[in-house]
Write a sequence for this structure.
């Protein structure tokens, strides 16, 4: 039996998020402070199913990293919230970026190529890190910006009045982007504001008393940031770049395939997590299984197991299962699972 593993590190985040309710109304600030807009999700997707929260605002003024939970769930100097889609194939399908609140478009930029800046180099986008972008004014000193949109996807123009939820363009990977996602930044009187905090917070760690998100969006974010977000089968060794382009998702494989590989991709595994991958044959026999005790917190982690063909594979449905177990406070475990099936014929 041949078993292989692959590890990827990125700038993503993992934590459970405990959030207050804002009472279903736009947050109202103390005397002398402007009322903010109530922000909705800036992307047309289902959190935890077709999109995932992957980066928070960096609140550390120096070279360190500190998000609103007092964790390092960001990267140095990050000024917004990042929400990722599955891969480049989903980007090509088209996922709408929408206005988080009603306002007026002030500036746009389009025409920049989509790609992975870790391969093209930061110099190629110097001074244009936001990529293809839309900037909006919501009145009373409040502004939002939407970065990394797909090339030639913008459907708004400066001066245009936009309602909450109106389409601005499509999710892309332009500018300083290593994967398809939308970056939304919020500013009040030109200063960066973390939408999970707003303008009023008494504690040093945790959300503010009145986050900017509306109740529905807050509830969607409450599921945390660790996810086994993708999995599938492949007849050959998995290449990370090809995987993130949308390959290795065939529902049917040949009985003469060279290998039978099951893979999983995860956002934010933690030091101490146990990750198990297993392949089960149509007759219920476990063909391959491996458990790793992870020794490092990783932003993005991919693993695969499998077997090489010695004789033709038996026809039928094969099942792949991935399970991540995390021990929490008081010995209670949190379990993350994903399953996939493939037919061999």
């Amino acid at each position: 039996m041949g078993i292989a593993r692959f590890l990827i590190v990125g700038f993503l985040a993992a934590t459970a998020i405990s959030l207050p309710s804002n009472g279903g109304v736009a947050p109202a600030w103390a005397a002398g402070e402007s009322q903010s807009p109530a922000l909705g999700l800036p992307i047309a997707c289902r959190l935890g199913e077709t999109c995932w929260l992957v980066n928070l605002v960096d609140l550390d003024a120096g070279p360190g990293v500190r998000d609103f939970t007092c964790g390092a769930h960001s990267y140095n100097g990050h000024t917004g919230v990042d929400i990722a889609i599955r891969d480049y194939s989903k980007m090509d399908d088209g996922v709408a970026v929408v206005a988080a609140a009603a306002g007026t478009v002030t500036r746009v930029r389009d025409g920049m190529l989509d790609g992975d800046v870790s391969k093209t180099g930061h110099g190629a986008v110097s001074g244009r890190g936001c990529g293809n972008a839309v900037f909006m004014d919501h009145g009373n000193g409040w502004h939002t910006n939407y970065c990394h949109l797909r090339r030639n996807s913008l459907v708004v123009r400066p001066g245009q009045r936009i309602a909450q939820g109106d389409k601005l363009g499509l999710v892309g990977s332009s500018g300083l982007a290593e994967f398809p996602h939308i970056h939304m930044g919020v500013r009040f009187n030109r200063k960066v504001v973390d939408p999970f905090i707003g303008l009023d917070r008494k504690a040093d760690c945790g959300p503010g008393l009145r986050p900017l998100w509306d109740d529905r969006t807050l509830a969607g974010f409450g599921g945390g940031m660790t996810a086994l977000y993708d999995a599938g089968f492949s007849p050959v060794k998995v290449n990370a770049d090809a995987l993130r382009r949308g390959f290795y998702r065939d529902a049917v494989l040949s009985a003469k395939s060279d290998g039978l590989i099951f893979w999983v991709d995860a956002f934010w595994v933690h030091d101490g997590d146990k990750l198990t991958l297993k392949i089960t044959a149509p007759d219920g026999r476990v063909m391959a299984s491996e458990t790793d005790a992870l020794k490092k917190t990783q932003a993005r982690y991919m693993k695969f197991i499998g077997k090489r063909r010695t004789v033709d594979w038996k026809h039928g449905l094969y099942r792949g299962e991935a399970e991540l177990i995390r021990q929490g406070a008081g010995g209670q475990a949190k379990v993350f699972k994903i399953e996939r099936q493939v037919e061999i014929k």
